[in-house]
Amino acid sequence: MSLYRDTGVVLRVHKLGEADRIITLLTRRHGKVRAVAKGVRRTTSRFGARLEPFGHVDVQLYTGRTLDVITQVETVDAFALPIVGDYQRYTAASAIAETADRLTAEEGEPVLKLYLLVVGALRALAEGQRDASLVLDAFLLRSMAFAGWAPAITECARCGRRGPHAAFNIQAGGSLCAQCRVPGSVHPAPEVLVLLDALLHGDWDTAEGSVQGVRRDVSGLVAAHLQWHLERQLRSLPFVERRAREAPIVDTLGSDSVSGETEVTSAAQGTRSRESAHGATGA
Ligand SMILES: [Zn+2]
């Protein structure tokens, strides 16, 4: 049995059996870790409350046969309390946690940059100084940059020509110049590109000076861009095979803990079979 410590953010929790939970953490040094917290659903649990979603905690774990086991928890930042009491902050934090979870397909692989982005975004939501939807969109843009999917904003996605350009196409990677423009592109207002760029680069003075209509358009583009890339990732073979391999192992631990995982697996397999049925070229 080997012990280790790390600092992490709670991304999600699943019930396990009568009294336990599986906690998904995004940690500073070990990347995504799924670990068992024993007895946390009993009201007498010492650390159950510290392992709620969005908690920033220092944990001690020991390496288990299938999942690691959490033996100690200390709160680093109590982000959860101010976040869960406010609907807008809560929905933004939930989207941040889900995106971080989906962007880390491999457990145990260090993803320091993403961890820092999650902690920064949750801290901003907890403090409540910034607009929650701007915090969310900034996080989504930067986490997509981390994944290598940042949209081209100030240059053409195809040829690199400096813009700003009028056309924007998610499948093509973002802004497109007049020569590279493809059918089906949208034409966002110039202010939309300005706000996208400000959020990607952390220019909060510019971001907070934007008007509601522009923020709405930016949120729509960011969500569509993320959705498109996540669906592409879901179709990738290694990811699907890993999920399929993992499901039976988790199954033996407790029935109510696995519904989310099973859903992802079958959805991914569904996508694959649809693809092969249509002989997709795999864009
Ligand atoms: Zn071009």
Describe the structure in your own words.
This protein is an alpha+beta fold. The chain has three domains: 3-81, OB fold (Dihydrolipoamide Acetyltransferase, E2P) (Beta Barrel), CATH 2.40.50.140; 87-235, de novo design (two linked rop proteins); 237-277. Helix content is 46%, strand content 18%. It contains nine helices and seven strands; from the N terminus they run βββββααααββααααα. The strands form two sheets. It has a five-stranded mixed beta barrel with strand order 1-2-3-5-4. The longest helix is centred in the C-terminal third of the chain and has 24 residues, at 212-235. Zinc ion binds at residues 156, 158-159, 161, 176-177, 179-180. Residues 1-79 form the DNA replication/recombination mediator RecO N-terminal domain. Residues 254-271 have a biased composition (Polar residues).
**Biggest sheet, in brief?**
5 strands, mixed, barrel
Radius of gyration: 20 Å
> SS-based structural class?
alpha+beta
H/E series: EEEEEHHHHEEHHHHH
What coarse outline follows from CA principal-axis ratios?
A: elongated
> Would you give the CATH topology of the largest domain?
de novo design (two linked rop proteins)
Number of helical regions:
9
Tally the structural domains: 3
Low-confidence stretches: 237-283
Strand order of the largest sheet: 1-2-3-5-4
How many beta-strand elements?
7
Protein name: DNA repair protein RecO
Keywords: DNA damage, DNA recombination, DNA repair
Family: Belongs to the RecO family.
Biased composition (Polar residues): 254-271
Characteristics:
binds zinc ion, five-stranded mixed beta barrel, alpha+beta, 283 residues, OB fold (Dihydrolipoamide Acetyltransferase, E2P), 3 domains, 46% helix, de novo design (two linked rop proteins)
